[in-house]
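Input (structure):
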């Protein structure tokens, strides 16, 4: 029984505390750890440059790694072009027709109305007389051309006129005959007036021109404007998405920190995820383990005095920020195989670097008041 007590007492004294310190202080040793964060890209890609080395201090916003961004830039340029086009369409609809466009539409409508009214009323007497006069002139020209052709044909038979002269006379006759036929059709159309289908066609052209004027005056419809705005917003969202993807090609430090490890090299093809591990030197944690008997003596927010072997009796301030809700086995470096049945609870203490004097990896001792005081 004595041998059993001798074996079990040392871990209880180390973890739960001994009255060997002044005022019943419990001394528990642990290791200082730094709060690590990772920096990376949500897109991934090929590594173009690695700008930091392990152990290097960086400030928030410093560029750590650059990925090849040629494709991302091209996608952004295309998205910006689509957005510019959508904005131009919307601006045109919102502004409505220009004065020049309105004047042109009104002039076209007036011309179409005149044609329609002319088709309804029929030709005027002066138009009929003009058509008759044109027909008489065309008939006279045709008769003269026919007489000239007959003369040249006779002379060609007598071998006085050449073949070329005959061909020229025939061409002149054909042209005069065509003009005479056209003048006769025009005279007949003017004389009888427009047909029903011609009147209907003229009215349709007039209605179309008048509707165009009304549409230009009224401006764009509400549904057209809504569709244009929706297209503009969708294009803007695509542009923003492309801009975000381009930003992901640059991995920056999220806070002032020290580079703990770099996981990539130039030329590597990386997936989305972290590529650099950082440690905040001013955000330190000391994790110690206490027995169940000490749980009632510690609390979150409690101030704790910390000492280290490196700085002798000099003490530093710490604050308990977390107490484990479940027990665990004693750490291996503080127990033997037989002592693993002893359960302890982790206590996390927040520290600052004290101007760089405390660093991750250092061993430190937390002085916990056994009576639960500060």
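Output (sequence):
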């Amino acid at each position: 029984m004595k041998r059993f007590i001798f074996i079990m007492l040392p871990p209880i004294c180390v973890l739960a505390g001994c009255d060997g310190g002044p005022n019943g202080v419990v001394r528990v040793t642990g290791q200082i750890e730094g709060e690590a964060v990772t920096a990376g890209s949500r897109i991934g890609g090929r590594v173009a440059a690695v700008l930091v080395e392990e152990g290097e201090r960086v400030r928030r916003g410093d560029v750590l790694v650059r990925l090849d961004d040629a494709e991302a830039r091209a996608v952004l340029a295309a998205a910006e072009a689509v957005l510019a086009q959508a904005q131009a369409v919307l601006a045109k609809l919102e502004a409505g027709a220009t004065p020049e466009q309105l004047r042109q539409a009104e002039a076209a409508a007036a011309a179409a109305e005149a044609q329609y009214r002319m088709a309804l009323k029929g030709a005027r007497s002066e138009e009929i007389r003009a058509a008759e006069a044109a027909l008489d002139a065309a008939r006279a020209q045709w008769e003269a051309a026919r007489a000239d052709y007959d003369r040249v044909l006779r002379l060609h038979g007598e071998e006085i006129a050449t073949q070329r002269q005959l061909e020229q006379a025939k061409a002149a006759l054909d042209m005069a005959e065509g003009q005479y036929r056209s003048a006769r059709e025009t005279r007949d159309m003017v004389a009888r007036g427009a047909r029903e289908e011609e009147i209907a066609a003229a009215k349709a052209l007039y209605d179309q021109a008048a509707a165009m004027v009304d549409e230009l005056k009224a401006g764009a419809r509400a549904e057209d404007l809504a569709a244009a705005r929706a297209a503009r917003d969708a294009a803007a969202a695509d542009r923003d998405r492309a801009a975000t993807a381009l930003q992901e090609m640059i991995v920056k430090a999220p806070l002032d920190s020290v580079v703990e490890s770099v996981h990539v090299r130039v030329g590597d093809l990386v997936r989305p995820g972290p590529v650099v591990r950082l440690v905040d030197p001013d955000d330190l944690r000391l994790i110690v383990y206490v027995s169940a008997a000490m749980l009632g003596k510690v609390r979150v927010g409690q101030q704790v005095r910390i000492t280290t072997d490196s700085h002798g009796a000099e003490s530093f301030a710490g604050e308990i920020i977390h107490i484990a809700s479940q027990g665990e086995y004693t750490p291996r470096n503080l127990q033997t195989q037989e002592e693993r049945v002893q359960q302890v609870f982790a206590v996390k203490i927040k520290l600052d670097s004290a101007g760089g004097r405390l660093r991750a990896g250092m061993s430190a001792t937390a002085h916990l008041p056994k009576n639960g005081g500060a």
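Notes: The chain has three domains: 2-68+257-369, 70-94+224-247, 95-223. The helical segments are 2-16, 70-95, 99-121, 125-157, 163-192, 196-218, 222-247.
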